[in-house]
Amino acid sequence: MGLLKSSALWSSWQRGRGAPVAVAPVYLFAGEETFLRDEALRHLEDLLLTDETRLFNREVVSGASADFLPLVQACETLPLKSSPSRSEERALGGSPRERLIIVKEAQRIVAAHQAELAPRLSALPETTCLVLLWEGPWRREELKRPLVQEIQRVGEVVEFLPLTPSEAVEWLMAAVKRREKCLQPVAAQALYETTEGTLRELAHEVDKLCWFVGTREEITTQDISQEGGYREADPLRWVAALKLRDLPVSLALLQQLLQEGEEPVRLLHLAARSVIRERQISPGMTPLETWRSLTQAIQAADLAIKTGRETPAGALTRLTVQVCQPGGPSSARRPSSG
Known about the structure:
Order of helices and strands: EHEHHEHHEHEHEHEHHEHHHHHH
Strand order of the largest sheet: 1-6-2-5-4-3
Helix content: 40-55%
Shape: elongated
Structural class: alpha/beta
Number of strands: 8
Mean pLDDT: 82
CATH architecture of the largest domain: 3-Layer(aba) Sandwich
CATH topology of the largest domain: Rossmann fold
Oligomer: single chain
Distance between the termini: 68 Å
Number of domains: 3
Largest sheet: 6 strands, parallel
């Protein structure tokens, strides 16, 4: 019981061999990564409810309501209907929770109602699971609230924070595994680096890839390139060629990517994300001089695009030439305006 990260929450829900899923009586979901929060809430619903019980035993209450009675009644109501599978699970020592109460905008529960709700949490029926969604800004100071402290004592407060690049790669692998397929780390990294990086976009890409490979279990880097619509050119190959300072290959790949309709700004973001991540996890992989050249060129290209001084395609071309020629950006000659 206490304060959890979203990854620890999923671990607590993993069903061990012959062991029941551990579901707390009350959760507070907070934090700015709403995609992870919504994903966790959907999974919790699937753990506790079936299609036939969802209509009867799932209830949503607004924390902004001035009337506190509906929330109290919802928490204290016993399940109206039980499925045979849930009854069998209870008999085997599984979680008895079959009723899910969701409180939206929990941060708007007035202080008097928070004080009234806190002592009731320890007396919730064993069949009830209460989830409060803190949908406003979340600060650690909120942990000092008596209601939040009581939730920590009897249940779990879960923070859904933006994932780091390495956490996003792990999330991708876990998301594919839940679909009974396999995504190796190198392929997960490739998928992360060829998207804008938001979890909603990554989840959409996972769905498309699982459909793309059909009955095959493993998803490869080749699948990612083919599903993304690339024929010969691949954004990751372009970034790799930049790091090797291979000017002919870099320019050829860039030209082909642009001809195939790849967005120049997306390529720039891909290069930046790849450089930042590589420096974090493998500082010695790319020589320091090359890393600095690439970083300076990316910054210059980004500024040129934002100020309108160059077209996105022109800025990327200049970036490629500057990085690959001897001496890097510092010795690069600016194209004449005339």
